[in-house]
């Protein structure tokens, strides 16, 4: 019986090859053992420990819980800061504690900022564990890993009050367009800005860029139009990097009238052009940085299971239109933007809800859950958390984000919403496409 089974197995083409390879491995292990037997045990154990340490060091970013620590680090730091603050306020009255905590939250709010000019920057480098070692560049899967950390930083830099109130930013979808690979060991930035929003979704654009080293100008033989550089196939990619870089605090608020979102249509057109032309094109940022990838994320503001309109969350953080010229005196102009010392008109309504004695963070949380639904279109009253009437003066968030911001929101929404609509159509027609 055994001989018959052996004959059957040897008749299978793959079995002899497996036996041969196993025999070769056994010979290799035996030869390795003979060589190691001549080396002191302590010596090769030290060598093995060194190799194990180097492997762990190279893959430190991919070790268990390393991703969680990197992504949730802003939350950990913020929670610790507020815990220490609460500890220092133990011997103060309840009203005083609530007031100080609310003011501390407001100190981090982007009061007066234009939502389309607010940019959050997350910096990383293309490490070995994030790289495609065959192509020697950042792996496509690592773009999503970096974006996870970058998105959470948006929550705590652009929406600090929302985060403290217990709200979350739920991710609905992300769409990537890869333009150019990021080389191994290169330092890159993920620049996140708000593109647009509707009654449920906020669309966020992430741009993966690298800043060319040195101050080398673009070489002769290149052409530059509409923010992109066209290179002959044999021309190296040398880009001028004399322009400034984003602020170190992680946010960028341009002062010029031409902002990142002003160039949204042009950037999308340039990116699409790169896939239609045989020549190699470099898509550049306004500061001269090289664009490698664009990702559009579709996000939703959630208080528990309740979805909150993005406009309510944005205005509650202080985002607003810039001041307009005084009609009574055309020669006098207001500052270019509102500031914490000169807040926008709707900020008084936010403080009534969130800051003692008229409000609190609990009232603010209740307002985000249900209170905004009770606010009338015109001046009126909304019911607070304890049943009291709050004079909110109508839907103040629409006034804060109206005018030029509303016009830009609509224009940008026509561009980014096509991604969601297109994917929904594909999902609905999937079975017909199969046929």
Automatic annotation (TrEMBL):
One Pfam family here: 4HBT_2
Residue spans of biased composition, Polar residues class: 242-257
Residues forming coiled coils: none
InterPro entries, per database record: HotDog_dom_sf, THEM6_lcsJ_thioesterase
Transmembrane segment boundaries: 44-65
Domain of life: Eukaryota
UniProt keyword list: Membrane, Transmembrane, Transmembrane helix
Region annotation (Disordered) ranges: 232-257
Family named by the database record: Belongs to the lcsJ thioesterase family.
The protein, known as: Thioesterase domain-containing protein
Organism: Scleroderma citrinum Foug A
């Amino acid at each position: 019986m055994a001989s018959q089974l052996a004959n059957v197995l040897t008749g299978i083409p793959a079995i002899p090859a497996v036996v041969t390879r196993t025999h070769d491995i056994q010979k290799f292990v035996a030869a390795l053992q003979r060589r190691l037997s001549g080396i002191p045990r302590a010596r090769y154990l030290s060598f093995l420990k060194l190799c194990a340490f180097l492997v762990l060091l190279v893959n430190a970013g991919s070790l268990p819980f390393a991703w969680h620590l990197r992504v949730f680090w802003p939350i950990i730091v913020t929670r610790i800061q507020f815990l220490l603050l609460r500890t220092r306020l133990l011997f103060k009255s309840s009203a005083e504690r609530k007031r100080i905590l609310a003011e501390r939250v407001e100190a981090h709010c982007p009061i007066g900022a234009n939502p389309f000019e607010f940019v959050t920057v997350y910096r990383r480098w293309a490490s070995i564990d994030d790289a495609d070692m065959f192509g020697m560049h950042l792996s496509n899967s690592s773009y999503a890993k970096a974006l996870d950390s970058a998105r959470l930083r948006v929550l705590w830099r652009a929406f600090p009050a929302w985060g403290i109130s217990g709200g979350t930013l739920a991710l609905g979808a992300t769409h990537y367009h890869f333009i150019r690979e990021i080389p191994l060991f290169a330092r890159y930035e993920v620049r996140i800005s708000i593109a647009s929003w509707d009654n449920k979704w906020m669309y966020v654009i992430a741009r993966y860029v690298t800043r060319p080293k040195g101050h080398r100008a673009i070489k002769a033989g290149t052409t530059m139009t509409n923010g992109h550089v066209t290179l002959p196939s044999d021309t190296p990619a040398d880009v001028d990097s004399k322009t400034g870089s984003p602020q170190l605090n992680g946010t960028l608020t341009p002062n010029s009238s031409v902002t990142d979102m002003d160039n949204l249509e042009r950037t999308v057109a340039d990116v699409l052009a790169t896939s239609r032309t045989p020549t190699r094109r470099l898509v550049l940022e306004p500061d001269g940085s090289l664009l490698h990838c664009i990702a559009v994320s579709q996000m939703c503001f959630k208080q528990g299971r309740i979805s909150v309109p993005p406009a309510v969350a944005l205005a509650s953080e202080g985002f607003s239109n810039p001041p307009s010229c005084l009609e009574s005196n055309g020669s006098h102009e207001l500052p270019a933007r509102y500031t914490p010392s000169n807040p926008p008109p709707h900020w008084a309504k936010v403080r009534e809800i969130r800051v003692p004695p008229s409000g609190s963070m609990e009232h603010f949380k209740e307002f985000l859950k249900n209170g905004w639904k009770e606010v009338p279109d015109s001046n009126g009253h909304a019911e607070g958390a304890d049943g009291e009437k709050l004079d909110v003066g109508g839907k103040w968030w629409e006034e804060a984000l109206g005018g030029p911001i509303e016009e830009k929101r609509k224009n940008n929404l026509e561009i980014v919403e096509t991604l969601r609509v297109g994917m929904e159509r594909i999902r609905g027609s999937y079975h017909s496409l199969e046929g």
